[in-house]
Amino acid sequence: MYVCICHGVTEKDIKKAAKAGAQSLQDIKQATGCATGCGTCADVALEVLQNAHSQTTPEFLKILQPGTQWKEPTAA
Asked: Which 3 state secondary structure label does DSSP give 3?
């Protein structure tokens, strides 16, 4: 779904920016250009960003996230 028609930014683009570390609307603006034209998409862009961050990653997939240091499992 297109979120920002002015700059052709999709929901997928915003989710990708969130995965890359975007935490705020300002980060989304810098990463994608979304909400820098007419600005009517800002609310939807922020909602998509918040939803992207609220999705939890299963524990077994967390080792695959970029920038994560490997930790040796400890014996219980």
From this structure: strand
Backbone angles phi, psi at 21, to 5 degrees: 120, 0
User: What is the rounded CA–CA span in Å between residue 49 and residue 62?
Assistant: 19
First to last CA, the chain: 46
Q: Which domains, from first to last, does the chain contain?
A: 2-64 (1.10.10.1100)
Distance CA 65, CA 37 (A): 32
Kindly report, residue by residue over 30-54, the tens digit of the pLDDT: 999 999 999 999 999 999 999 998 8
